[in-house]
């Protein structure tokens, strides 16, 4: 266990950040999953900018890697464009 006040505080902060980051990443994964499961092109085209923005924010905050966000956005865009 930590002996200094600052390290105890750092542990508390890291735990809070971990919980928050996990929530954001989980909600983004759920949004990506819902977009992948959509059948209609209109609904997909409407959801894509929101999901794309969510992924960009996660990459900006270093919750996910920027290349992972780019890859996901690219694949989702291709899927939305190929919907019937």
Describe the secondary-structure layout:
Blueprint: H1 5-37, H2 41-60, H3 66-81
Number of discrete helical segments: 3
Uncertain runs are: none
Number of strands: 0
Characterize the largest beta sheet: strand count, sense, and whether it forms a barrel.
none
Report strand %.
under 5%
Average of the residue pLDDT scores: 95
Helix content: over 70%
Structure description:
- With 84 residues, the chain is an all-alpha fold.
- Helices cover 82% and strands 0% of the residues.
- The chain has three helices and no strands.
- The protein has helices at 5-37, 41-60, 66-81.
- It is elongated.
Keywords:
about 80 residues; mainly alpha; 3 helices
Could you provide a short overview of the structure?
This protein is an all-alpha fold. The protein is built from 3 helices and no strands.
């Amino acid at each position: 266990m930590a002996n200094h006040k600052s390290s105890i505080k750092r542990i508390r902060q890291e735990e809070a950040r971990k919980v928050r980051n996990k929530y954001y990443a989980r909600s983004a994964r759920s949004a990506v999953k819902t977009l992948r499961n959509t059948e209609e092109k209109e609904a997909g085209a409407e959801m894509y900018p929101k999901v794309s923005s969510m992924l960009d924010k996660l990459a900006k905050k270093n919750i996910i890697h920027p290349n992972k966000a780019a890859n996901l956005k690219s694949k989702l865009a291709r899927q939305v464009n190929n919907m019937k």
